[in-house]
Every structure is written in C-alpha cells, then in structure tokens.
Write a structure and sequence with these properties.
The structure holds two protein chains of two kinds. By secondary structure, chain A is mainly β. Chain A is about 0% helix and about 60% strand. The interface of A and B includes residues 36 and 97 of A.
Chain lengths: ~110, ~120
C-alpha cells in the first residue's frame, strides 16, 4: 500500500535560516505533489503544487523540488520567520488518490 | 467567498449517540472530500464526491459511517452509533475540478468530535 513519510515530526530552526522539510513516498507514482500549511485549530491551506515533469517550483520564499527517481520532495523556506511556524503537510497525488503525510511541525525561534 | 463552512465547530457526545457533521462547499466547486485527522494517523480520506455522486468511499471505516450530498451546496457525514475511537477532527474540503486534475483543495475549519 502507499506510504508517505515526512522527515520528522518536529523541526526547530533559528529565525533567518533556511528550513528544509522532506517528503518521501513509496509504492506509487504520483503525477503531482502538493504542499499544505496547517495552523493549530485550522484546516490545511494550499501552498504549492509541483508536477512530475517539473524539477523545481518557487513562490516567494518557498521552493519545492520533486525527484521522481528518489521518490522524494523537498520543501524549503528561506529567510524563515516566526510566522512560518506551523505544521507542513505533503500530499503526493494522482488520478485516483489524494493522500497526505502526517506532517512536520516547524518552529522558527526568534 | 466565505470558504468551506463546517458545523458544528465542536461536538461532544456520548457513546452510542448519533452524530451528524455538516459541510457547505465553496460555490461552484464540484468535488467534495471528507477527511478525518488524528495524531496517530494524520489526515485520512473518508469519502470523495464529484458532482454530488460518491466516487470513492473506500476510506469509510465501517457501516456506522455514512455520507450524503443531496445537492451541490451541502453534504453530511453521519456516525451512528458513535464510539470513543471516532474522536478526531473531521475536515471537509472542496475543489473546482475532479480528482487527479491538479486542483488544490480548500479545507474548512473542521469539527472537533469527542465521543465519551
């Protein structure tokens, strides 16, 4: 069955540094991959989508890579700020599935 | 647009009682999803509707769970009878395209369900 692993449950970094979150998947080949942000007590909010034929996608301070050979996506937040503290979820997806990882809780320390 | 609207925000009930969760998707969206979130299992897809028709309900845990979408602007998720292990946050999400078309999901704020 499909399996999605996000690198760690929690990640703490210093303000101004680059945060890198990892999403690994096994047993399927998603056509695209989405990243969401979730704040406590709220529903996930869409951030970025990257397709299987794209290597990299950027949006402001966010960058996502998608390596279909390694079955891995990396999510980077540059110049991190305390307001970036949240849980980040990856969702490798395809024609008949939309599964989410359990998320990585990021804390940016001032 | 007000976004996806879910009610109630919190629900506390006793084991054996019927629970009904409600969702109003974003106007114009034709896909609707129900998810359940727990610390142990994360976000689990329960059921997916497209144009008000259930397409995939393989994630529905058991016969105690049922979902309906009588029209494009309303869906319900019912648990009868409820059990303590059903305690979780239940999210409704909608999107403007069918599954697999790269459409992002818009989530509601969720219903926090506690079954005592």
């Amino acid at each position: 069955s499909q399996k999605i692993e996000q690198n760690s449950e929690a990640l703490n970094i210093q303000e101004g540094k680059t945060a890198t979150l990892t999403c690994n998947y096994t047993n399927y080949s998603p056509a695209y991959l989405q990243w969401y942000r979730q704040d406590p007590g709220r529903g996930p909010v869409f951030l970025l989508l990257i397709r299987e034929n794209e290597k990299e996608k950027r949006k402001e301070r966010l960058k996502v890579t998608f390596d279909t050979t390694l079955k891995q996506s990396l999510f980077h937040i540059t110049a991190s700020q305390p307001a970036d503290s949240a849980t980040y979820l990856c969702a490798p997806s395809g024609a008949n599935n939309l599964f989410f990882g359990t998320g990585t809780r990021l804390t940016v320390i001032p | 647009d007000a976004g996806v609207i879910q009610s109630p925000r919190h629900e506390v009930t006793e084991m054996g009682q019927e629970v009904t969760l409600r969702c109003k998707p974003i106007s114009g969206h034709n896909s609707l999803f129900w998810y359940r979130q727990t610390m142990m299992r994360g976000l689990e897809l329960l059921i997916y509707f497209n144009n008000n028709v259930p397409i995939d309900d393989s994630g529905m845990p058991e016969d105690r769970f049922s979902a309906k979408m009588p029209n494009a602007s309303f869906s319900t998720l019912k648990i009868q009878p409820s059990e303590p292990r059903d305690s979780a946050v239940y999210f409704c999400a909608s999107s403007s395209g069918p599954w697999g078309t790269n459409e992002k999901l818009f989530f509601g704020s969720g219903t926090q369900l506690s079954v005592l």
